Amino acid sequence: MSNQIALIGRTATYLLLVLAAFISVFPFFWMMIGATNTSADIIKGRALPGGALWANMVNFFTSVDMPRILFNSFFIAGFGTAMTLLVSSLAGYGFEMFRSRFREKIFGSLLLMLSIPFAALMVPLFIMMANLKMINTYQAIILPTVASIFIVFYFRQATKAFPHELRDAARIDGLKEWQIFLFVYMPVMRSTYAAATIIVFMANWNNYLWPLIVLQTNEMKTLTLVVAGLTSAYTPDFGVVMVGAIFATLPTLVIFFLLQRRFVEGMLGAVK
After folding, report:
1. Which end of the chain is less packed: N or C, by CB atoms within 10 Å?
2. How much is the average pLDDT of 55-75?
């Protein structure tokens, strides 16, 4: 009887997992199928591959300055990710390694700021960027994301598992604090950096609202804005939109699969 109950439980679990996997994968499947069909077929709900892939790709590349758009997207996402990891990991390292009677109060104040919605910050942030003459520049997109409170929190929590004996041994060997951070802390915490890289890169790559406000010329727009713009036409070509969505999705998939093992280790708090 107990074996039958266990079998039923496992069967129900697998069925739920299959359903969850189908729900997760179906949008990507629909996007791939839609890229091969005409707009009329997509509207009709055609779920089979068509023969319009090449025409959709030609229309997409003729309507979009793809090299410039890709450069904007990769520069903002890549450089922004590198800066966020550097600044936020330094802050997380400092909060955990250096003790002060004000440390927890300052950290608690930072966490409290997570409750402030970005919509409440948009207007003052835009005014600040306008006063600094940074509207329609890369700096206006990258600078507000450099000090990520969530990533600071994430690195501080991960740093709790960092062996303090390594830091003490490095100090005995004569290393300064910045050398300990670069040559001891960063290699040991590489799984945490990998997980944070995926999180930050995806956030920067998919960032839509703030770039929409700050980037005011077509030459500065990112791929996310361009794909969204394709749907705003009076009669959007959904086949072209699906091609753009595929190009917008591929970089995040590549980053995730390259760092997948490290991502799991980093989320589990692995320190090596």
Report:
1. N
2. 92
